[in-house]
Recover the amino acids of this structure.
């Protein structure tokens, strides 16, 4: 957050921004934290940590701008810097190969699965949720930000500190990977 | 001349996108990251292209499922009070 423009707030203003703009976002932040860490206690710690930092660096926040994107960015950075090592990510299944494949530059190709709309609609929540949680955290994150939280590509670029083109290609890969997972799952269950 | 009038029409069906362009645009259309003109051209193409039409509907279905089935988790009761507590303990408030 260094290098950004500072805004002078009085103590009352700090408290009022914190109460009226930051705290109402606790629900979204907690859910984001949970989907990153996949652990309730870790998610709580991460959210607390985020709010502590937000308060400490509140002068980097410009009133009236997008508080949600700003807080999501702090949370994502905390996760990367302090949390990722110790957080208990579930052991990866056999998707490394697939992910390596999608990390090649050619992301615009269409992937065709035999997945059908009806098959997807018949799936229960756990299946979708597990497939999403099973994605590598970088891929999971873009889907959460875009599909669950409704951020635009330019906001995601700021939160993740990556170029907008990378947002686009990472989303593309993430969704293809998710489709692969759902398709494998459907086959395993005999839906396909 | 009548021919000239035809070419002057600002928007024509033959402006619809190619299949390759459509495939590239699919997610951007779903994510509402294209201008209305591009969106219209995309949907023009969908009318003529079964693979794109299927893919578009599948992607939309997956997205809707993610939104409706990935349930929001309840924020732990003590989280907000503990945040407030930590802020005041830090001497900041
Ligand atoms: Zn097509």
């Amino acid at each position: 957050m260094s290098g950004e423009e500072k805004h002078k707030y009085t103590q009352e203003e700090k408290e009022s921004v914190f109460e009226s703009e930051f705290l109402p976002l606790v629900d979204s932040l907690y859910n984001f934290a949970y989907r990153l860490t996949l652990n309730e206690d870790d998610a709580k710690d991460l959210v607390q940590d985020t709010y502590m930092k937000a308060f400490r660096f509140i002068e980097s926040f410009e009133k009236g701008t997008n508080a949600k994107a700003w807080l999501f960015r702090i949370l994502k950075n905390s996760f990367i810097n302090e949390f990722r090592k110790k957080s208990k990510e579930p052991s990866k299944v056999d998707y490394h190969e697939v992910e390596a494949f999608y990390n090649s530059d050619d992301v615009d190709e269409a992937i065709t699965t035999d997945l059908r709309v009806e098959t997807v609609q018949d799936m229960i929540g756990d299946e979708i949720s597990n497939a999403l949680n099973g994605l590598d955290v970088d891929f999971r994150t873009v889907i959460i930000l875009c599909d669950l939280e409704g951020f635009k590509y330019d906001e995601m670029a700021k939160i993740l500190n990556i170029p907008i083109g990378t947002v686009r290609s990472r989303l593309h890969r993430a969704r293809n990977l998710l489709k692969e997972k759902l398709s494998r799952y459907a086959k395993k269950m005999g839906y396909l | 001349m009548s021919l000239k009038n035809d070419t002057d029409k600002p928007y024509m069906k033959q402006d619809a996108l190619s299949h390759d362009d459509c495939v590239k645009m699919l997610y951007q259309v779903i994510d509402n990251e294209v201008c209305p003109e591009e969106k219209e051209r995309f949907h023009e193409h969908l009318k003529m292209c079964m693979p794109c039409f299927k893919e578009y509907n599948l992607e939309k279905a997956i997205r809707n499922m993610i939104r409706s089935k990935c349930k929001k988790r309840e924020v732990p009761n003590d989280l907000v009070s503990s945040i407030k507590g930590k802020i005041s303990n830090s001497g900041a408030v």
